[in-house]
Amino acid sequence: MGILCCCISGQSSPAPETGPVPVFLAPVSIPDLDIAPTSPGHLIEGDISFLVSDVTVNNWFSMVTMTFTRRRSAALGKTAPEDIELPDLPDETSESKLRVFTFEQLKTATFSFRSDMLLGKGGFGSVYKGLLKEKLIFTGYARKRRIAVKKLDSDSKQGLRQWQVLEKHGDVAEPDVPKRCFHGFFNAIDCEVRSDIETEVSFLARVSHPNIVKLLGYCQENENKELLIVYQFMEKGSLNYHLFAKRTDRLLSWATRLKIITGMARALSYLHTMERPIIFRDFKTSNILLDENYTPKLSDFGLAKWGPGDGSSYVTGNVMGTYGYVGPEYKKGGKLYVKSDVYSYGVVLMEMLTGLRAIDKKRPPGQQDLREWALPFLSDRTKLRHIMDPRLQGKYGTKQASEIAALAVRCVKANPTFRPSMKEVAERLDGLKLQKKH
Ligand SMILES: Nc1ncnc2c1ncn2[C@@H]1O[C@H](COP(=O)(O)OP(=O)(O)OP(=O)(O)O)[C@@H](O)[C@H]1O
């Protein structure tokens, strides 16, 4: 892969007072990033390499001009150096744009996978916070870009675990657990048997949406048997951490809840209306991540599956998902529809209204399954307030809440054909003009 390096010239002319300083960019092919500091105007060093190799010249141009503008503003006392932020990586994530990391790079970024960098553990590995050093030599400013690194356990059992969740409750037959095997990240998508991590990367590499977590790259070092995935860092972690917290400092306001459900409806609608639809299959609060502004992003495509591509309405195969969120047509009948995601979305809507988990064995009998218990309250406007999350202390839009409750009831209909499409759900939520503040 050719690497572009931007050289700057023409610095002798005085910089204008406003607007970006003119810079001249010359693409130069260089063999690696140990650039001899002899050519004037090198802007980069260290781990900035991925920016150089991944961004287009346009991105480079905006980065350079921005840096100049900020540097000059800083000199004029307008901006403190620590305010400097690098532009985000390009939005389009495609296979070719993904960065291939070495294990050493990710080890350094996570301080050797230090325990205090651990963000959480999931079905097939642990997720660590990482800091990638990026330095702009020209300005002398450095910054660390935050990333999230998912490290696959050597013996991943996610598929098995998901099966057990369903099986424990006696809802499915003895599962035929797929054997773990590795096809390579991008060849696996059409294989019947593939690992969750392959599925995750191969789907995430094909999608791009503001409400879907961005895949930045991966590391696949066979000699070390290491498989790692690198994502954008999501500051506030997963939705369930906030929604079910007892602590009031993690309380999600009504406006934030609306922002989250609207963003998720858009993400699912995007997946379902792709040329060949993608069924997410494991929609739940722990797979919704929140950034610093509580913008929600769908994550964890480990169970995602291509939807029907031949005009039929469902696909079949092993039943996978999480108990409490799986529609009856799939759980009992093994038929997976695009609208099976709509069912799971409806259950999440109920959780967002009530602040209660989809399934909680600690609740009194009759209340343990949220869908069963909440349906009569959700269907009757006059009863809705009895089940609204008490932590909201009544601070919610009554009309909005009843409209969302009515949507939830439609989403969890036993027959998938009676459920709305995610496109319709997204449009209805948009129509409520919900996104004023969080
Ligand atoms: N991009 C990210 N930024 C910040 N935190 C993250 C990110 N991805 C995951 N995490 C954290 O790591 C935890 C584990 O994530 P992971 O996707 O492995 O598992 P999960 O979705 O919680 O569980 P499972 O995979 O079993 O469904 C999450 O709950 C979340 O708190």
UniProtKB/TrEMBL annotation:
PROSITE patterns: PROTEIN_KINASE_ATP, PROTEIN_KINASE_DOM
CDD domains in the cross-refs: STKc_IRAK
Binding site for ATP: K151
Alphabetized InterPro entries for the sequence: Kinase-like_dom_sf (IPR011009), Plant_Ser_Thr_Prot_Kinase (IPR050823), Prot_kinase_dom (IPR000719), Protein_kinase_ATP_BS (IPR017441)
Keywords: ATP-binding, Nucleotide-binding
Keyword Signal recorded: no
Database matches in PANTHER family: OS01G0588500 PROTEIN-RELATED (PTHR45621)
Entry protein name: Protein kinase domain-containing protein
